[in-house]
Design brief:
The protein is of the alpha+beta class and 238 residues long. It contains nine helices and seven strands. The chain folds into two domains: 76 residues, no CATH class; 116 residues, Four Helix Bundle (Hemerythrin (Met), subunit A), CATH 1.20.120. Bound molecules: zinc ion.
Length: 238
């Protein structure tokens, strides 16, 4: 283990001294300051608190509502208002480097939309996973349910990953089919505490599927090709 705190403690949080940077995806220290603007006159330039409302009463609280956090590693800023990150608009990690192109786009859209709407983000994350599973199992019958698709994949993946697919199948279902399955599952996707967890679980599951079914076989094949037997046969078949 790397000694990192659990995922939920690494998520960006208002005024946290360290969190996973939404730009570079590293768990890094962040420096916080209130957002200010440059007020220029003919003779001077000064930085003053950001003002947006005309009512004098609201100015102080308006200025206090805006913050920026700058990553110590990549030096990119994030902008916050009322304790919520507004920029960059994303929730969840980055797509695996071997994520198929046709799935990557959905993955990135899910992380972007989740910052605005948790339910939309969870729906997109589930769609991402479904698309990925279809790419990984092209001979699956069209219209197969996620339960069927999961069962087809199970022999090819680790037990832990299989279990996570089952959680996603049950939990993510509520996030998408709101009318058919109202209640706890939808709440899970909307809830501040478990909503991001569900989204992260779905996206992390997508990344792990790519790792187990694309990256590792690719690495094995590359290493095999470097062995004498591999060079002789040019094929990893046993
Ligand atoms: Zn960064």
């Amino acid at each position: 283990m790397t000694g990192l705190p659990p995922l939920e403690e690494r998520r960006p949080q208002f005024r946290a001294s360290k969190f996973t940077c939404p730009h570079c995806q590293m768990y890094t220290p962040h420096e916080w300051s209130t957002l200010r603007r440059i007020k220029a006159s003919r003779t001077s330039r000064e930085s003053v608190p950001l003002e947006g409302d005309n009512t004098r009463m609201a100015v102080a609280s308006y200025a206090e509502a805006w913050w920026t956090s700058v990553c110590a590693s990549c030096e990119q800023p994030s902008v916050w208002r009322h304790e919520r990150m507004l920029y960059p608009l994303r929730l969840g990690g980055a797509a695996h480097e071997d994520m198929p192109t046709e799935v990557r786009e959905l993955f990135e859209e899910a992380t972007a939309v989740a910052a605005v709407s948790r339910r939309a983000g969870a729906a997109m994350a589930r769609t991402t996973l479904e698309r990925l599973i279809k790419v990984l199992d092209p001979s699956a019958p069209s219209g197969a349910t996620l339960a069927v698709l999961n069962d087809r994949l199970r022999p090819r993946i680790s037990a832990t990953l299989g279990q996570r697919l089952d959680i996603v199948r049950v939990a993510g279902n509520g996030a998408v089919h709101v009318d058919q399955a109202p209640g706890d599952l939808v709440v899970l996707a909307l809830d501040d505490a478990s909503g991001p967890q569900l989204l992260e679980l779905m996206l992390a599951t997508a990344n792990d599927l790519v790792d187990e079914l694309i990256s590792r076989p690719k690495l094995t094949s590359t290493l095999w090709d470097k062995t004498p037997a591999g060079r002789a046969s040019t094929s990893p078949a046993s």
